[in-house]
TrEMBL record:
Residues 1-18 form the signal peptide. PROSITE patterns: IG_LIKE (PS50835), NODB (PS51677). Residues 78-351 form the NodB homology domain. Pfam families: Polysacc_deac_1. This is Polysaccharide deacetylase family protein. It is found in: Secreted. Keywords: Signal. The keyword Amino-acid biosynthesis does not apply. The lineage of its organism: Bacteria, Pseudomonadati, Pseudomonadota, Gammaproteobacteria, Oceanospirillales.
Length: 351
């Protein structure tokens, strides 16, 4: 009943979105010597943190923010969550000192295989424990960081589900053994998930995180929460300022509810139904990662439902449709992103 009341209140107000939403940032490497496509430099991270500090943002614990949004509890305006994926050593060397100086909590989603094998490029359990004692949340990113949507040769559906369940459970147990933490937050490797895996996560009591851009709000899918990837050109300050000041485009329904691209439909249409919000519907625009701006087709007179589609076949790998609309005062963007995943002909995925 409490959640129903919170949902109804959300629909009846135009200010609730800013009070129960948060921007989640996703980093990988923090280094000048790692691949640019997955890296920010230490100077860039310093600029990001200084901007948050100088402009009244509240950097909060991931557990507190997720719990608050799910339970309908208010958050400070301009709430930010900082996350890192994969557990690279440069997080400890280059990011941890900056975060510690600011007193900012952060999260590391750990793929435990390279950590257990003491790979040179990865954090050690000792370093993870130290950061955990200084405000870091240590969370689940699988053992192998494999493409979880892909079945092994000869594997049945149930064997595939059981294998993924086992990997998540073993990772969580290892993190708890080494750090004492078990928060049941899971970041999908490569941001890839399908409906069956998302349902598995629900049955296990986990919250899931993707790699599609957007803002987490009360209408978000808690099996695949959005995060803004921070790397390469996406980490430049102009874009950073826009993203950390953005709000969740309130999506009441979407079709399809899957990332998977079928071979007989390589130009998939996305249909979205909007809840009420303080945004300019006439200025809503959508973009496909393989085509730039794409048409928005309104499906009703009140402009509550629309569809969008790319004119080009989606390539093998991951693609996105992003839809944004400016707020009524023009100071913020409302943002939503849907990730697509097209597999190779043999059912494998690409990194």
């Amino acid at each position: 009943m409490k959640r129903l009341f919170s949902y109804l209140l959300l629909l009846l107000t135009t200010t609730a979105y800013s009070a129960d939403s948060a921007v989640f940032l996703q980093y990988h490497h923090v280094s000048e010597h790692t691949p640019r496509s997955t890296s920010v430099t230490p100077d860039q991270l310093q600029q990001h943190l200084d901007y948050l500090d100088d402009n009244g943002f509240s950097v909060k614990s991931i557990v507190d923010v997720v719990d608050s949004i799910r339970d309908g509890k208010p958050l400070p305006d301009k709430t930010i969550v900082i996350t890192f994926d994969d557990a690279f050593k440069d997080i400890y060397e280059n990011a941890f000192p900056l975060l510690k100086e600011k007193g900012y909590p952060f999260t590391i989603f750990v793929a435990i295989g390279p950590v257990d094998k003491n790979y040179h490029q990865y954090l050690s359990w000792e370093q993870l424990r130290e950061m955990g004692q200084r405000g870091a949340t240590i969370a689940n990113h699988s053992i192998t960081h494999s493409h979880m949507v892909v079945k092994h040769p000869g594997e049945t559906q149930q064997q595939w589900v059981n294998r993924n369940r086992d990997e998540i459970q073993k990772t969580e147990a290892r993190i708890k053994q080494q750090t004492g933490q078990s928060v049941k937050l899971f970041a999908w490797p490569f941001g890839e998930a399908n409906p069956e895996l998302r349902q598995l996560l629900v049955s296990m009591g986990y919250v899931g995180f993707g790699q599609q851009s957007g803002v987490v709000g009360s209408l978000s899918d808690f099996t695949l929460l959005p995060r803004y990837p921070m790397a390469a050109d996406y980490a430049e300050m102009r874009g950073f300022r826009t993203k950390v000041n953005s709000l969740p485009l309130p999506i009441a329904k979407q079709r399809p509810d899957s990332a998977m691209v079928r071979d007989d439909n390589l130009k998939p249409s996305l249909t979205l139904e909007l809840a009420e919000g303080d945004f300019q519907k006439n200025q809503l625009k959508c973009y496909a990662s393989n085509a730039g701006e794409v048409p928005v087709k309104w499906l009703d007179d009140k402009k509550t439902r629309f569809s969008t589609v790319t004119p080009n076949n989606l390539p093998v790998g991951r693609s996105r449709y992003n839809c944004t609309a400016p707020s009524m005062d023009g100071r913020h963007y409302y943002w939503y992103s849907h990730q697509w995943l097209r597999l190779n002909k043999d059912g494998t995925a690409i990194d």
